[in-house]
Amino acid sequence: MSGTTRDQASLGIYVNDHLAGAVVATNLARRLAASEREWTKADVLERLASEIAEDRDELLDIMAALDVPVSQYKTWASWTAERVGRLKLNGRLHTRSPLSRVLELEAMRLGVEGKAASWRILRIRAESDPGLDAERLDRLIDRAKAQIDLLEELRVEAAADVFGGPID
After folding, report:
1. What pLDDT digit, counting tens, does each position of 5-15 carry?
2. What is the pLDDT of residues 74-118, one digit of tens each?
3. Could you tell me the pLDDT band of residue 67, with boundaries at 50, 70 and 90?
4. Cα torsion at 50, 55, 60, 63 (round to 10°)?
5. pTM of the prediction?
6. Distance (Å, rounded) from C-alpha 107 to C-alpha 151?
């Protein structure tokens, strides 16, 4: 396998793995926003869920520009894994626990950290790949940083609600 073919195959695996994560993140963000409608930050969660879905669509556009096909089995597997993840025990059998909000915000933050890392890798590649728009990737990196900061604020507030007092 030539270097170029191998590079394209590796890129395909890499971006499909991140697409699988984006599917999970989009579903988690939407579920969290729907489950937390009574929380004072519900509007923030709605906006964040929309941004995360837009970022997934951005990745799909980038994949198309790079001529990388979507790996349907990875997308399906990630969708299934997100649903199975809902079965975790968090101290309550039939209702959401306040701890659910904290854990889901932590999971979302980790996901956005991974997304930011993938945007940075693609940004480096944009220097030599005409299929990638460096300015677009810069905007996506900046948005991911803002999402990470916002998720951290929400996580700290949710943790303070659960555990009492300010959390640093």
Report:
1. 668 889 998 99
2. 555 555 555 555 555 455 445 677 788 999 999 999 999 999 999
3. very high
4. 180
5. 0.83
6. 10
- Is residue 168 one of the residues assigned to a domain? no
CATH number of the CATH domain containing 106: 1.20.1260
24 within 8 A of 82, measured Cβ to Cβ = yes
Q: Is 140 exposed, middle or buried (0-12, 13-18, 19+ CB in 10 A)?
A: buried
pLDDT of 162 over the 80 cut: yes
CA angle (158 as vertex; 47, 44 as ends), nearest 5:
10
Alpha-carbon distance of 94 to 109, in angstroms, equals 26
Full residue range of the structural domain in which residue 142 is found: 3-163
In this prediction, residue 3 carries a pLDDT of 46
Helices (H) and strands (E) in the chain, counts: 5, 0
In angstroms, the CA 121 to CA 123 distance is: 5
Residues 97, 35 contacting (CB under 8 angstroms): no
Residue 67 in any domain: the answer is: yes
The total of structural domains in the chain comes to 1
